Amino acid sequence: MIPEAMVVGLGSPDRGDDAVGTLVAERVRAMVREGVRVLTREDPTALVHAWAGCHTVVVVDAMISGVAVGTVAVRRAGTRDAALPTHAFAAAGRGGSHAFGLAGAVELSRALGTLPEHVAIVGIEAFNFNHGPMSPQVAASIDDAVAAVSAELARAGHPLQGSEAGTCVWEQSRG
Amino acid sequence: MTHQLKDGGQVLSVGMLARVEGEGGMHIEIKDREVVSVKLNIFEPPRFYEGFLRGRKYTEPPDITARICGICPVAYQSASTEAMETICGVTTTAEIQLMRRLLYCGEWIESHSLHIFMLHAPDFLGFESVLEMAKDHADVVNMALRLKKAGNDVMELVGGRAIHPVNVKVGGFYRMPTLTQLEALRPDLERGLEDALAAVQFVSTFEFPEMEQGYNYVSLRHPDWYPLERGAEIVATSGARFPVAEIGAHVQEFQVEHSNALHARFDGEPYVVGPLARYSLNFDQLGPRCQEAALRAGLGQTCRNPFKSIIVRTVELAYAFEEALRIVDLWADGHSPSVPVPPRAGQGVGASEAPRGTIWHRYTIDADGVIEDAQIVPPTSQNQASIEADLHLAAQQWVDLDDHTLTHRCEAAIRNYDPCISCATHFLDLRVKRS
């Protein structure tokens, strides 16, 4: 059965800050109500079919955008939103080879008609993708990221248990 | 992008080549319509895995070496476990070998479906990337995603994770999947087999540049099956044939100035490992349906056109589905997931057929199981010289094409090998210089 909403934690649990998406999703898993499915995935290509038919999807992933480490930011990438930059995919480099990134998966999904109407990407600024533990700044941002997911689900009418729709406060940015 | 040089020469710069794994560059120099120099510059930094394996326990390589690559971790796990079990004089059970083969099928399905349809097919269908291709060939891309998911599911069930499996150990597995869990894979595997067989015919309709290469093909071979997780011996089209343990006497690794990855020669000559070599040396070990699909697609029992590697890879994709189904059919619950492997001093080799070719590991351990020496030889480093030779031939054959078309042909020639540069160093900036 296709859930109305989905939370996806992306990333490798072994590679430092890349584990943050999975950890946030696991925190959220204990609080979601009926109709919301929580997934963790390492391979973004899995999303292209996995989220087909969902109305709202919140993806949590580590990001590198140049802002302060630990910053939590939300970018919308649904059917009505602007296309994500996929130059890194088309022009290769680390994001465009066998490592099919999140932006590539979103745009492939858009091309195939499986992209949900509402997709929110909750990004946590990270810097350490080596094997080993997460950096303290990223670990300290998990509460903010959970709050961001909560706010996105509340907007879509799926508030987490223990939170009231519209009352979740989180910081757009830290640091 | 074309640049005029002060000396009157011409450099075509393409930035980083897409749809290969890792970071490298390509430099082609042409003078008076003659290709005078071709260099595959691999500048992905060396990763020193062999160095930091020294001093670790003999039980650690399956987990450590799997991290070399996110696309073919099982190849590393299979080669390292086989090497350690050989050194320690332990033979695992037939059921453990079957489960290793199933895990390997999952890796082949994941890797081949990604490369065939999402990285390589755009070259033949005239698209810059699968993102553009999806608009006109949604059915193909949707099929590719289904096939890849089927591979991911096998990896997750048998290996514990879709990327970098954690269920593999020296001596076998930490746990075995149940027959019920395996049976749940069956519908997707059955559909995958039919899709892959149909895809063999689909890719065979692509337009292939005329190009034949007379390389020495090298592959594992086993008397009972097409080589995946292990083989009994190494065979070559040159006629060479010897036990896997002797491969170190035939392969010489050496450094070249323009690459951070070691090059290799087989009995003193460049050689090729990978789908073309496996297929040409093991056609008789494919099942009847895969053989029939290959022949119907216009392949002979050997294939010498590197651009047709996409057809061969698709035949192998179908074989991986067929083999996975065979193993599910054979499975029964109740088998021990592993056998004990007490350490014993010695040296040993393990080899398997990664999606992109033969990989072999050689270890020396002491009586306590501490690793004294390690050598890891992945497929892409072995293929570097032949990739350069293909580029030389391609650039010469099509020297009168405009720079854009020539560059595209050269990029496609590289992708024929599905190179994994992270493995080899353990990408590509293509430059054509004309003068």
Describe the structure concisely for a colleague.
The complex is a heterodimer of chains A (175) and B (435). Chain A has six helices and five strands, in the order βαβαββααβαα.
Keywords:
heterodimer; A: 175 residues; alpha/beta; Rossmann fold; five-stranded mixed sheet; 6 helices; 5 strands; disordered C terminus; B: 435 residues; alpha+beta; Cytochrome-c3 Hydrogenase, chain B; 2 domains; four-stranded mixed sheet; globular; disordered N terminus
Overall mean pLDDT of chain A: 85
The whole-angstrom Rg of chain B is: 21 Å
Please give the order of strands in the largest beta sheet of chain A.
2-1-3-5-4
- Oligomer category: heterodimer
What is the count of helical runs of chain B? 14
Structural class of chain B: alpha+beta
Number of strands of chain A: 5
Estimate the helix proportion of chain A, in percent: 25-40%
In N-to-C order, the SSE pattern of chain B is EEEEHHHHHHEEHEEEHEEEHHHEEEHHHE
Structure description:
The complex is a heterodimer of chains A (175) and B (435). Chain A has 175 residues and is α/β, with parallel strands linked by helices. Chain A has a domain at 5-42 and 56-85 and 115-155: Rossmann fold, CATH 3.40.50.1450. Chain A is 27% helix and 19% strand. Chain A has six helices and five strands, in the order βαβαββααβαα. In chain A, strands 2-1-3-5-4 form a five-stranded mixed beta sheet, with helices on one face. In chain A, α1 (20-29) links the parallel β1 (5-10) and β2. The radius of gyration of chain A is 15 Å and the shape is globular. The model of chain A is unreliable at 89-97 and 164-175 (pLDDT under 50). Chain B has 435 residues and is α+β, with helices and mostly antiparallel strands. Chain B folds into two domains: 2-46 and 402-434, no CATH class; 49-382, Cytochrome-c3 Hydrogenase, chain B (Orthogonal Bundle).
